[in-house]
Amino acid sequence: MTSRTLAVGGLLAVAASAYVVVVRPRLLRWGATDDEVRARSAADAIVPGGNRASTMAITIDAPPRDVWPWLVQMGCDRAGWYSWDRLDNGGRPSSETVHPEWQPIARGRRIASTPDGKHWFEVAAVEPERFLALRACLTRGGVHYGASEPRPDAFSDVLWAFRLEPLPGDRTRLVVTAHGLIEMPLFAPFGKWAYYLFWEPAHWIMQHRQFANVKRRAERLFRTRQRSGRTRLAEARPQS
User: Within a 10 A sphere around the Cβ of 126, how many other Cβ atoms?
Assistant: First the structure.
């Protein structure tokens, strides 16, 4: 083994260690407070044997009523994901408006997670203007199985949860957590490092983008509603 090979290997080892020790912990709790990271939620109990993988959060200058409509209409077959549309929505722009026909949502409903509709999330829990959890259960071959069915020998059971906490001054704290249990014996330990070095950073990139776009849309909706309310109030005042 040449000295150059050893040097490159050493640099890669240092870079990987720095990522795991310094960068990764920040990605997994991006924007979240210590209390939010420690707090228990309904999502923690949905995936049997699962662990919370990340907790990310953002403050939105709009009340939950103006944030919630954007979340419940997510999906490749609906409003998109408000993230990088070329990566997760087949290049179709995510909706900039609230669609009344996409607002009803109930536990058990399937929401397409890929443009071709071959993969989906199932609504695992929903509490209007408070909590939404989306779950996907897949075999090693990428085939969906029911959450209530026996787990195969190799599987992934993951949950994406959105919690809305009202704040004073018509604001909302949006806390997003990822949970899961992945049992892929043939891919260990390679699969574990692939998860650390690819899937976790990819999730952060997409979640960070979604945060920014949901925030912009919700705050715009809130401002529009405020202006509309002031206009109606002015019109209702008696003329002198």
Answer: 18
